[in-house]
Amino acid sequence: MKHIYHYTGSSLWSKARPFVLGMLLCSGMASAQSNNPVINSIMTEETSNSQLEKMAHELFDGIGPRLVGTPQMKQANDWAVAKYKSWDIPAKNEKWGEWRGWERGISHIDMVSPRVKSLEGTQLAWSPGMGKKTTTAEVIILPDVADSVAFQQWLPNVKGKFVMISMLQPTGRPDYNWQEFALKESFDKMKADRTAQTDAWKKRISKTGFTNKTLPVALENAGAAGILTNNWSAGFGVDKIFAAYTKIVPTVDISLEDYGMLYRLSESGNKPVISIHCESKELGVVPTFNTIAEIKGIEKPDEYVMLSAHFDSWDGGTGATDNGTGTLTMMEAMRLLKKFYPHPKRTILVGHWGSEEEGLNGSRAFVEDHPEIVSKLQALFNQDNGTGRVVNLTGQGFVEAKDYLSRWLAAVPDTIKNRIKTNFPGQPGGGGSDFASFVAVGAPGFSLSSLNWSYGAYTWHTNRDTYDKVIFDDLKNNAILAAIMAYMASEDPQKTVNTKTEGIKWPAQIKATRRGGLDK
After folding, report:
1. What is the DSSP letter of 125?
2. Which residue ranges does the record assign to the Peptidase M28 domain (predicted)?
3. Residue 102: is its pLDDT beyond 90?
4. Long-range contacts, stretch 115-118, CB < 8 angstroms, 24+ apart
């Protein structure tokens, strides 16, 4: 809509413009909602005065990624509490466990021979730091040996060298790019070659007598200067950034483009030499928290509606779409509810969970620690799979979910709800995100599942999960949806009944890991 109006010279228009645009946007939504002032106010406020972009800047650009056990995770917890309190919403950080404390420092990675080139790379999470030391050494490739005996005989060759332990990818182009431009026979040949190469590399690892997890430790124990990996995410310029297994020397993910160059140089006998300087700090055992905020109910304060999103992230990027967008959606929904529905019938809670990435630990701990809330849960709505607008809602295997979810969804503007595909009763989620922690104990937890926006390849756990990938128009829709669903669930005169569908195998409850990362 902003491209329609070009004249901004009038101060009157400048002042009126946000309100007018908001009303224009809202006019495209369902007119059936016009007789509900709470819903209308939510829609108008979010379209004309959204706080999502401001919060995204503060969280993603200012604080950054939120790896469990890092100071940035605690900084984010404190930021969220302060933000809620600025909206007059009581909030707290609730300790649920302890984790290995670690903080990422600067990294410099350069090739110095046979030519000089700065390399794109990222030390993996929990990688050992090098202090102020810089190591310059030759790069070698993990060899294809006959068996574990032959590998032990070769192992002394790693002393003082950086060892490449990932496969050389045959292409840096994603499959969709091949499909668009390649001859079919070329594409088919590439895929066949890649499959054969992948199988061969798995056998190469297996024949060492180690696994992907234990091999780096064996190499560092033999005196390797460091470990080089490439965990390509099947998109242009994007890698997955997970955890290091080494305890002494750094483990660094090198981008596909630079990893391939080093591999080919080494394979052709050019003996590439690189220089690595990676700093990080071990911080001992640190407490870990969930951030919980509350709008107290006035009629049924001991029944609960919950909004839900995990707060932690991996730290190759800034955790923008996994799960910063889910976090901000729920924060914005709470802001809207407090402003236009300050005295709900039921208590409305929001949970920003820690250590989801390591096994839903924060939400599993909450379920264990708060049976008084879980047993009185009217519904929980969780969002976690990226920046897109919500398009799927399933009943998670509960018989009555169709009745009450459909009833609440009917109040949502047509332009939002008509894009949502429902599936009832559906299957109970056994994992994947924090709603599953509640489903496992028979509580009504639901996933607001969104369009992927190339989430799996480009932003999920990658070095490209950053602010610029956020689609704020979709987030605004999601904040409106979450706020209205929470409002309707709170106002519903009936308490939800949650009968498990017969013939469905229900997931078992899994205990939270309360002390993590300490064996690394």
Report:
1. B
2. 290-479
3. yes
4. 117/258
pLDDT at 10: 35
* DSSP 8-state secondary structure symbol assigned to residue 425: S
If you average pLDDT over residues 289-314, what whole number do you get? 98
Q: What is the pLDDT of residue 519?
A: 74
Residue entry with tokens 């689609």: 471
What are the tens digits of pLDDT across the range 120-132?
A: 999 999 999 999 9
Q: How confident is the model at residue 99 (pLDDT cuts 50, 70, 90)?
A: very high
* Of residues 287, 293, 327, the one with CA closest to residue 51: 327
Mean pLDDT, to the nearest integer, of 37-50? 97
CB neighbour class for 16 (10 Å; exposed up to 12, middle 13-18, buried from 19): exposed
Span 57-67, pLDDT tens digits: 999 999 999 99
**Coil, helix or strand at residue 416:** helix
Residue among 446, 447, 287, 460 nearest 365 (CA): 287
Amino acid at the residue 1 = M
Residue 347's nearest CA partner among 309, 307, 295 is 295
Q: What's the whole-number average pLDDT of the chain?
A: 94
Strand (E) or helix (H) holding 206:
helix 184-207
Q: List, in sequence order, every residue forming a beta bridge with 293; answer none if it has no partner.
A: 91, 350
**Contact call for residues 246 and 126 (beta carbons, < 8 A):** no
> Sign of the C-alpha dihedral, residues 39, 44, 47, 53?
negative
Cα–Cα distance measured from residue 327 to residue 244, given in angstroms and rounded to the nearest whole number? 27
Residue pair 239/232 in contact by the 8 Å Cβ criterion: yes
- What's the pLDDT at 7? 28
**Nearest CA to 327 among 380, 257, 373, 382?**
382
pLDDT band at 334 (very low <50, low <70, confident <90, very high): very high
Length of the chain: 520
Number of neighbours of residue 152 by Cβ within 10 angstroms: 14
CA-CA-CA-CA torsion sign (202, 208, 211, 212) = negative
Q: How far is CA 185 from CA 65, 171, 328, in A?
A: 42, 15, 46
Element (H, E) at 94: strand 91-113
Phi/psi for 288 (5° steps) reads -125, 150
Q: What is the pTM of this model?
A: 0.92
Residue 397: its pLDDT value, please? 98
Collapsed DSSP state (helix, strand, coil) of residue 378: strand
Q: Which residues of 316-342 are buried (b: 16+ CB within 10 A; e: fewer)?
A: bbbbbbbbbbbbbbbbbbbbbbbebbe
**Whole-number pLDDT of residue 520:** 53
